[in-house]
Amino acid sequence: MRSCLYIAVFALVAGCSVPQSSQTQRVPSSSGKAVSQEVSLNLDPAGKEVKAQLFSSGEELLREVEKLGGARGEYETDSAFYGRMSKLGDFSIASKVSTSQIKFNAASGEFTLDASMHNAQGFGFKSNLDAVTALKTVYPAFIAGEDIYNGSQYSGQNSYGASALITKRTINRYYLVFSPVPKPPLNTLFFHVRSRLNITGAEMESERENIRIVFTVKATPNYLQVTKDYQQPKISNPFESVINNYFFSAKVYWVKVVNIKTGRVYSDEAKLGIEVI
Questions:
Q1: Residue closest to 197 by CA, chosen among 155, 137, 259, 138
Q2: Is the Cα torsion angle 225, 132, 11, 95 positive or negative in sign?
Q3: How confident is the model at residue 34 (pLDDT cuts 50, 70, 90)?
Q4: Which of 222, 210, 209, 217 shows the shortest CA–CA distance to 193?
Q5: Is 8 a residue whose pLDDT tops 80?
Q6: Residue 96, C-beta contacts closer than 8 angstroms, at least 6 positions apart
Q7: Residue 23 and residue 271 in contact, taking contact as beta carbons nearer than 8 Å
Q8: From residue 237, how far is each of 64, 98, 149 by CA, in Å?
Q9: Cross-strand bridge partners of residue 54
Q10: Which stretch of 110-114, 128-132, 149-153, 237-241 has the lowest confidence by average pLDDT?
Q11: Average pLDDT of the segment spanning 228-252
């Protein structure tokens, strides 16, 4: 019963309709494994028809943010920041599909998409909750891509005398963050996006780099949060990195899988899902 509550909460905060024809899978307790419940959530069909500006990458979305005045200023009020960022309105963002997110069934010849979502707090997202409540809360987030910009190089040396050519670089990472879900004290939550893909093996080989997951969303308060991380170079990883994390708060209208180059649709409706273990 409690797991059904978390599923219903996620359905509401993600903008989904209450799951009615969901599929549940349970592992018998006699097996010695944890009992799990998994549900695919039904998005409101009206979301499919939402007209929204398409950004083919996080970099394009960030350029639009700059047109609206950029990230929040240090002394900018809520009303001023929300006023300009609310102009993002409805938008779509295309995220490149990684090799690990594509599954192939050799028996049937079928391809499927299986992309995980994670707790945004694990990537540096800061909630407005107190520390104790934040630990009991999950902010489901989809990683919408990253851009890497290499800069100057210099020769570095570690304490053992080993040297390496170090490259300075900036990494921009983009996240879609959905409303918080209470974390069950005795269960673990897993969030994902899944779908069958209408694509042949030959097309997968030729068009693999052009496949994108497209989220159509509505920008919601707090709209955009930016955090910064730093990565020191090592001989095994000779990069001195500044990592900018861009967290876009959003409500989902629709998710599909397309070819960003040709426009071909491989999945007209990808499903958001949650598993409670």
A1: 259
A2: positive
A3: low
A4: 217
A5: no
A6: 57, 145, 209, 211, 212
A7: no
A8: 33, 22, 16
A9: 92
A10: 128-132
A11: 94
In a domain, 238, yes or no: no
Residues β-bridged to residue 147: 172
User: CA–CA separation, 209 vs 194, rounded Å?
Assistant: 19
Q: What is the pLDDT of residues 181-239, one digit of tens each?
A: 888 888 888 999 999 999 999 999 999 999 999 999 999 998 999 999 999 998 889 99
Q: What is the pTM of this model?
A: 0.88
> Which among 101, 62, 68, 100 is positioned nearest to 85, based on CA atoms?
68
- Joined together, the tokens standing for residue 130 give 């107190």
Q: Are 150 and 169 in contact (CB under 8 A)?
A: yes
Beta-bridge partners for 22? none
* DSSP string for 93-120: EEEEPPGGGEEEETTTTEEEEEEEEEEG
Q: State the total domains in the chain.
A: 1
For residue 32, tell me if it sits in a domain.
yes
The parent domain of residue 138 ranges over 2-145+175-220+249-276
**Residue 162 covered by a domain:** no
The C-alpha torsion from 52 through 54 and 55 to 57, rounded to 10°, is 120
Q: Retrieve residue 274's tokens.
A: 């949650």
Phi-psi region of 233 (alpha: psi -120 to 50; beta: other; left: phi over 0): beta
Look-up of token digits 């040396």: 157
